[in-house]
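REQUEST FORM: STRUCTURE PREDICTION
Request ID: SP-0412
Submitted by: Lab K.M.
Chain count: 1
Length (residues): 113
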Amino acid sequence: MTTNISSLTLCCNGCMYCIQKLQNKRGGIDNMPSLPITTRLDKESIEKLENLSKSTNRSKSFLVAEAVDKYLREQEWQVEAIKKGLKQAETGQFAADSEIRAFFNSRGIAVED
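STATUS: Completed
RESULT:
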């Protein structure tokens, strides 16, 4: 399914590729110039990347940039959660043993004494 928005043809109604095309058209943050980076991948990953590039009609650079962006967003969230937990621990904000047992028991996980 394709959609035409102000002379901009999109392949769908919301994939990352089309969102980026829209943002670039509107002068969004993705319109900022990108910088090259070099990395090494194993042969199997390169073959998978080439196959995905052909299947989706997207450049390998786009696919790698999209994957890196997703990975960084996930890692940023985890790092922030860890920092928050460490701050709580530093101030003595710990869960009681009974709270931990209840948490795991509610998920069907037995906790030994």
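NOTES: Residues 1-33 form one domain.
Reviewed by: T.R.
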